[in-house]
Automatic annotation (TrEMBL):
It comes from the Eukaryota. The keyword Disulfide bond does not apply. This is Uncharacterized protein. It is found in: Membrane. PANTHER family: MITOCHONDRIAL DICARBOXYLATE CARRIER-RELATED (PTHR45618). Solcar repeats lie at residues 1-79, 88-171. Its main location: membrane. It is a multi-pass membrane protein. It comes from Malus baccata. InterPro entries: MCP_dom_sf (IPR023395), MCP_transmembrane (IPR018108), Mito_Metabolite_Transporter (IPR050391).
Length: 174
């Protein structure tokens, strides 16, 4: 969790710019855009400190997702290996990586939605306010908007990461 939290402290400005530019793509025709591109967004966001808008939920999201991925990978892999005829091979690691991703996205999606909304809309007072307003106005399933694209993004990352880690463990075994 700590490594996930530390990584996002460094990456938050880039994530903020990404979210803001994505939000601009949803503006109705005729509404002027705030930014002309990434560099313009970095330079015109409301001061240096504002680049860390949404840091709290972003740290929570990254820490939760990293912890869920790492904690569930071995459990999913062990479960697969209990199936008669299963062997420890690339397919097992592929499935374990996707399983770990499913758990991570399932657990992290609500925090991810709140993080993105706070970064894209400055009308929320704090994380709790964003969570309550989303729940009240859109219902519980609003916290799982974008689940499939997020699953696809994290799934591809997990598959590559866990395959590389497993191969590295095999190479460096004594």
């Amino acid at each position: 969790m700590l490594t996930g939290a530390l990584a996002i402290i460094v990456a938050n400005p880039t994530d903020l710019v990404k979210v803001r530019l994505q939000a601009e793509g949803k503006l109705p025709a005729g509404v002027p855009k705030r930014y002309t591109g990434s560099l313009d967004a970095y330079s015109t966001i409301e001061g240096l400190g504002a680049l860390w808008t949404g840091l709290g939920p972003n740290v929570a999201r990254n820490a939760i997702i990293n912890a869920a991925e790492l904690a569930s990978y071995d459990q999913v892999k062990e479960t697969i290996l209990k199936i008669p005829g299963s062997i420890d091979n690339i397919l097992t690691h592929l499935l374990a990586g996707l399983g770990a991703d499913f758990f991570a996205v399932s657990i992290g999606s609500p925090v991810d939605v709140v993080k993105s909304r706070m970064m894209g809309d400055s009308t929320y007072k704090n994380t709790f306010d964003c969570f309550i307003k989303t729940l009240k106005h859109e219902g519980f399933l609003a916290f799982y908007k974008g689940f499939l694209p997020n699953f696809g993004r994290l799934g591809s990352w997990n598959v590559v990461m866990f395959l590389v880690l497993e191969q590295a463990k095999n190479v460096f075994r004594v």
